[in-house]
Amino acid sequence: MTQTHLxxxxxxxxxxxxxxxxDGRGDRLILVGRSRARAxxxxxLLPGSHGVAADLRHPDSFADALAAADLxxxxxxxxxxxxxxxxxxxxxxxxxxxxxxxTVNLVAAAELTRLTLPAVRAARGQVLFVNSGAGLTAHPxxxxxxxxxxxxxxxxxxxxxxxATHGVRVTTVYPGRTATPMQEEVHRQEGRAYDPAAFIDPExxxxxxxxxxxxxxxxxxxxxxxxxGPR
Length: 231
Fold this sequence. Notes:
Organism: Microbacterium thalli
Strand content: 15-25%
Structural class: alpha/beta
Number of strands: 7
InterPro entries: KR_dom, NAD(P)-bd_dom_sf, Sc_DH/Rdtase_CS, SDR_fam
Shape: globular
Order of helices and strands: EHEHEHEHEHEHHE
Largest sheet: 7 strands, parallel
Number of helices: 7
Keywords: Oxidoreductase
Radius of gyration: 17 Å
Strand order of the largest sheet: 3-2-1-4-5-6-7
Family: Belongs to the short-chain dehydrogenases/reductases (SDR) family.
Pfam families: adh_short
């Protein structure tokens, strides 16, 4: 049966790998871009998909953006794949680094979930959060990013309990370091050379995500970690 998925972060990395897999099997995609131009670019990247303009830096604008998009009354899956990162020690991170990461990585996911929940409930669907290993353990220089991802875990855990009576499943995927543009940016901030072959392929994370989405209704994967395998 053809399903409908709303995805953030579908322009690159893990989000793009997931979107391509779902598109390849004939599902309907609603792709969120930060501007009208970017939303149109995403829709052109996967012909047949629908682009929605919503800037994750401004969650207060989502209600109007989604109303203008005229979304379907039932959405099978909302996949939160977008995120930003700015590293630095607590003693040097300015408030803007905290605010930006908490807004994009956490508050935007909470607000988009709130606004789409009626459609997800109508489909007895699923909300899937692409989190991070930083959502489980915080390391030096990762405080703000890890705080946003720890918060995302709390959001998912609370939502899972709240929405069970509506038949909505909630899954969090915790990828380790994955070969994505964000990982390349992390290496730039760390001052290290970047070798994508040393990390998880986004397709491997996408395989994990699809397994969780396709699980029969009698079961739920609440949390799953994906780590680099032995080479």
